[in-house]
């Protein structure tokens, strides 16, 4: 929307971010132990050891989810990207939230290296975040959800068509937040935190 | 088995895609074999067992490495790593791919898999704790070295001892705990000792010596003395790059001659007449350019005879003078005139070029006029400047005055020919001091009259006078010209036009000693007749091309569309032709530009007999380049060596000792660390020269250029550095900083009470517990840090038995030290009394914030003990558990379920009031407490008269330099909280308010972008709350505020640890 001079630079930041998201989402899925660990292989990204899905479909899903965000990120529409794990009754049990704000006007001055350096700390933190997460319930599933500041016009871009409105159930009560990592450098403000249902939430759920 | 996994974790740097892939496969296999013996990937392997597979693979990797090593440029590199075989473990900087490349190039070996037999050094920057604890199992006794060892060794071009580079784990990255964690291999931080060997520190010492930098292309005419050669990104670039490509000196000179006609026209009479077939014949004694003119000098003028050839060469080079002059100019005028300020407005004038007025001012035949200004007898005679008045006359005239030009004498002409044309021609030598003086006067005058001056050369400048509306430009030009004549005794010509192009063209008409104004209306008329060849940037090649299309004048050029021009001549040239033919010129008068590369080139008098000559010559050249780098306060990473080699069939050049018809070669190398160090330069240039594999007798010119420049100034280094170099240098700086900080600061002013370790700080004690033992369990070769380096705070927190043990290793002096420090502190602050059992005593109920409600009001807190997950409770640290338990009503069982809703209501009431409080507070103070540096509160607290607040303020000041975060402050507060004494109740209330306010404001600032920090503070506060009455109250208040803000911004509440 505000695409002006810093256009290409913003694009650069957005592209880096999308690449990072793809890796981070994979890391989260790996961290949760959603698939057997043999489903992942070790790769190097930003000079950090990360995981990559070996199954082409899983890889494609994550890749398309992340890269599908690119036009929206470039327009500054994306507010949060969530990786949500559900129990079998479609109620979220854990949400990894990437809350992001890109300052489009000042993105021009960013240095790729510094951005990578900052993002790397996320990956490192993620790789040791196991104690923060809860064990998965049986028969669970997961998805990537993006929260946009405003809904994009229908058919405004081809990439946008990959995304569908979500029908995920929401929690009744405000969730409990566990911050994982925050980055607040000029063009990009990115925070990763966990959301769990509040303790009082579980009670009614179980009762239902 | 484990080894191979470890090596995988380091990530293999497969050089080709193929090898990478195969690595990945093994990875699966290795894991499979390790964790699941029946793994399918293992079974499907075509090899009979894992061992044989690995064997074959290792062999293949080795073969690949060897082929690569033998194929590269490596032949010319010194094999400094001969016999060294590294194994890279984990994340390193430079990445292990780069390390592998270095090993390839410098004769080392790179092992993908660890093996005790083949590996000689393990390279890593970090080790996981498990490996540190089991260092011997991990390293098998091999040295574990930081990657900087390799980088520094390359910088120093010899294998440095690895001992100072031994991994001093965590010491430099996470000094607090880790200093006691890692087996201390040596007490002194190795980084410090190694530092002088890295490029930076040397570079920083660079003194400011004037050196050549950017120079106008007009000066690139191949002169007898041709030197300084630097590139710029000005529009003139086009002309310059073209020059670079030209093979022979004639064409070269011609192009440039066209570019600036009046001075630099080269005669086409470069007949190969003088035949001196071999270098050794050239031992005749022609004078080299020296101040007392011609002929008399004994100076020798080829690399063959003169050991100081390079030095003298540059000393007597006119171009070198011009180049160095620019630097002088920059230093002289940049301080007094704000360059940036007018660059901006200059941009504006370029946009509305119609209104702008530019004066181009040029001293007439500068090099001659200056010399003869005090010699009246020469005033009207034909005079030319040349460094040599030899009878042979193959020296080129560098500048001729107008009387001489009348005879057809031109710059670039051989003296011999000039004398044919004008027998009475007087040849005078250069007078560099006078040039400098006149140039300074010239610019003094210009700067006096106009703010916007762009120096083109020592005798030529553009003035942007668009802003000076009240003065007629023509009047201004004549005033300036008159002043110049009066002051310097040299005449100047001025051209006035709407653009730099027009001004420059006007000057041509104006010369000599006149001025000419091309007004906007007359531009077209003027250009109509102008030959395309006279446009700046149009050289002979381009002119020929244009003439083939039957374009001779700008009028004809204007008929062609921009598109087709760009199609025929390239985007940039086409654009240039199109706009120049219309008198358009987007350039604006700007300050002196930063150069992109710095270097020196010699292509006159270069004759080598053997390798030794070359070595010597390169040494001198490097010295020159190094001096120039230092003069510009730059350091560079990429070094390019240019060689001019005599063309096979080319005879000895017409120009005496000239380079003649040459093939140009260039090769470059990029090193990891930027440098201006002369030794590094020498080594690199020798290496590069060797890689050409030339017959040294054929070499006619050598140039060394340094690019990828960075400022040598340590202060702006951080910004211009690449990540790699930044990270490389980081550990060093952190190390020293920390040393100062932790040891100097902490020891001095931690008034922690001696009894604290018996009372509070259970968890901090635990940290110490876990951290401490490794000091004892360190390797046998570990040595103790000097006692003065010990962190008193940590010491005092040690359990007594450990302390005793430590004391033993220090020969009993430790206790003395501690006693001494304690004694001092006691004297300093008589306030340090603490109730021994404070944390255990139930907090006296305060009317304001009763214990129970405080924690209970929290969303997350179960209403009664029955809802508490016992397993969680058990996991909690003792102190926390006590807290949680204490937070429940004294008799939870008696609380009936019907009470619960009421309780909740009450809670919510309270909560809302708190929120309101918080908002109001912020309403009028609007985060001002955290405004400024140091923030406002620091000062407020300092003068508050309250010991606790003073303490906090003091702590902040101490940590502010390294990390001005509240969490850091709180961390320190935790360790020192024992010494805080709780004041009277009335005082307490006020303190609580103050602290809350300052915390709330901080939280408000951070909530948007950094909940990580808030969370950290939150948890720290909770820990503090268990230890201090004050913080207990603060926590109760602030936690609500935090939760409220978080839920406002994130729609949830922070989880409580």
UniProtKB/TrEMBL annotation, chain A:
It comes from the Eukaryota. The chain crosses the membrane at residues 13-35. SUPFAM superfamilies: The spindle assembly checkpoint protein mad2 (SSF56019). Keywords: DNA damage, Membrane, Nucleus, Transmembrane, Transmembrane helix. Its main location: nucleus. It holds the Pfam family HORMA. One of its GO terms (cellular component) is zeta DNA polymerase complex. GO terms for biological process: DNA damage response. The keyword ATP-binding does not apply. Residues 11-194 form the HORMA domain. Coiled coil: none annotated. InterPro entries: HORMA_dom, HORMA_dom_sf, Mad2-like. It is found in: Nucleus. The keyword Ubl conjugation does not apply. PANTHER family: MITOTIC SPINDLE ASSEMBLY CHECKPOINT PROTEIN MAD2 (PTHR11842), MITOTIC SPINDLE ASSEMBLY CHECKPOINT PROTEIN MAD2B (PTHR11842:SF10). This is HORMA domain-containing protein. It comes from Brassica cretica.
From TrEMBL, chain B:
This is DNA repair protein REV1. Residues 76-167 form the BRCT domain. Deoxycytidyl transferase involved in DNA repair. Transfers a dCMP residue from dCTP to the 3'-end of a DNA primer in a template-dependent reaction. May assist in the first step in the bypass of abasic lesions by the insertion of a nucleotide opposite the lesion. Required for normal induction of mutations by physical and chemical agents. It comes from Brassica napus (Rape). Residues 358-539 form the UmuC domain. Mg(2+) binds at residues 362, 459-460. Keywords: DNA damage, DNA repair, DNA synthesis, DNA-binding, Magnesium, Metal-binding, Nucleotidyltransferase, Nucleus, Transferase. GO terms for cellular component: nucleus. It is an enzyme of class 2 (transferase). Residues 1-47, 182-301, 758-782, 889-908 are annotated as: Disordered. Its EC number is 2.7.7.-. It is found in: Nucleus. Residues 1-16, 32-47 have a biased composition (Low complexity). Residues 189-198, 231-241, 268-282, 771-782 have a biased composition (Polar residues). Binds 2 magnesium ions. Belongs to the DNA polymerase type-Y family. One of its GO terms (biological process) is DNA repair. SMART domains: BRCT. One of its GO terms (molecular function) is damaged DNA binding. Its cofactor is Mg(2+). It holds the Pfam family IMS_C.
